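Exercise 7. Given the encoded structure of a 203-residue chain, write a plausible sequence.
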């Protein structure tokens, strides 16, 4: 049996996404065997992150600055807000390099099964940003699940009912869904094919 310290390390690693008990044991053993090159630097990085990273009060992104670097970037188009479920989605869009606007992180989606209602998400903060004016478009980059689509409908309705001083309410758009680049029709599910057929474009 391993010592209590090692077992605690394994238990904590097993709580990470994608790591089960066996994977956590292998990871713990690898870290311990490479203490100087992996374990010590990882420990320092975790401590530094815990001390310095915080949630942006404007958009909900994670950064060492508050507001975050994206919100403070003067090159960003502040008239377009992209609404995402979580920080991981924000980072994915940033990696793609296809969006130059600003973001709003919801912190999840509405879910009756999980008991997650509008008050548990950052929807009120989004409508406050819209009400302040200057936003022309809100892009709903939310997953195409039942809960995701329910959340998108709810947000669109809230934005439509949000009074904007001296301006029209911003238009609300969604990411296109359908056949992925490089995808073969034979391997796609029925829902994806149906969506792609309904959202077809001129050739």
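Solution.
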């Amino acid at each position: 049996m391993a010592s209590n310290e090692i077992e605690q390390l394994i238990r904590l690693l097993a709580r990470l996404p994608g790591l089960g008990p066996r994977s956590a044991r292998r990871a713990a053993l690898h870290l311990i065997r490479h203490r100087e090159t992996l374990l010590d630097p990882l420990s320092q990085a975790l401590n530094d992150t815990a001390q310095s990273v915080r949630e942006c009060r404007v958009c909900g992104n994670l950064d060492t600055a508050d507001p975050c670097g994206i919100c403070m970037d003067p090159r960003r188009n502040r008239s377009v807000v992209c609404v995402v479920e979580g920080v991981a989605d924000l980072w994915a869009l940033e990696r793609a390099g296809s969006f130059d606007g600003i973001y709003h992180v919801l912190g999840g989606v509405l879910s009756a099964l999980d008991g997650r209602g509008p008050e548990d998400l950052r929807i009120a903060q989004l409508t406050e940003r819209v009400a302040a004016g200057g936003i022309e478009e809100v892009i709903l980059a939310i997953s195409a699940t039942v809960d995701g689509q329910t959340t998108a409908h709810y947000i669109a309705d809230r934005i439509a009912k949000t009074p904007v001083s001296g301006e029209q309410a911003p238009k609300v758009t969604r990411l296109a869904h359908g056949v992925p680049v490089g995808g073969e029709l034979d391997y796609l599910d029925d829902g994806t094919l149906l969506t792609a057929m309904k959202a077809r474009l001129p050739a």
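Remark. The beta strands are 54-55, 62-63, 77-84, 101-105, 137-141, 171-174. Students should compare their own answers with the one above.
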